[in-house]
Amino acid sequence: MKLSRSEQKRRIRELERLVMELVAMPVPVLASLPAPEEIIDLIRDAAAMQGGARKRQVKYITRRLRNEPVEELYGFVTRRRGAALEEKRALHELEYLRDALLNEALEQQRLHQDQEPGWEEDWPSRVAEEIGKRFPAVDTRALTRLAWLYAGTRNRRHGREIFRMLRAAREQERRVGM
Predict the structure, then answer these.
(1) What helix, strand, coil percent values describe the chain, rounded to 5?
(2) Burial 76-102 (b: 16+ CB within 10 A, else e)
């Protein structure tokens, strides 16, 4: 089946986008690229170039790859980008958990503001329980204490420490899971 001219142009533009992704990758990653050594060298050269020279080099690499099988290259970029996206998503989840804990602590402080005995640092936190279920290695008592300190002082250092604890628990979970 012969491709239409428009379809040929679409495929070339798609291949050019692939080459742009490859050129943007760090040089050490390119060593594991599933491509001939001469293509890898051309990509390294393009990464060092700027402006019009880089564009010309990308077009040249695209022309060289036009008749080559590129499925492995697409798979490589997808796996590489997928790992970065997963890492970003996991960090956003940790930020969400930290913010939920801090917001719960602020709400508890507002509720107990008028009471005489006050609000204790080992208060029962629903969010900390959920975090404990999600990350069994995390010290939920330390989390609630840090959230209590944050609510009392509004010092961002306590929020950063909660995030560090959550990230460490996540890393430990990943190592055990391997």
Answers:
(1) 75, 0, 25
(2) bbeebeeeeeeeeeeeeebeebbebbb
- How is the chain split into domains, by residue range? 5-68, 86-177
Q: How many helices (H) and strands (E) does the chain have?
A: 8, 0
AA identity, residue 130: E
What three-state secondary structure class fits 119?
Answer: coil
Predicted TM-score (pTM) of the model is 0.59
pLDDT tens-digit series, residues 55-110 = 999 999 999 998 888 888 888 888 887 777 678 778 888 999 999 999 999 999 88
Contact 50, 105 (CB under 8 A): no
pLDDT tens string 123-133: 889 999 999 99
For residue 50, the SS3 value is coil
Alpha-carbon distance 62 to 59, whole Å?
5
Q: What is each CA distance from 152 to 69, 99, 106, 123, 176, in whole angstroms?
A: 61, 16, 8, 13, 36
Burial class (CB in 10 A: 0-12, 13-18, 19+), 64: middle
- Answer yes or no: are the C-beta atoms of 108 and 119 closer than 8 Å: yes
The conformational region for residue 154 under phi > 0 = left, psi -120 to 50 = alpha, else beta, is left
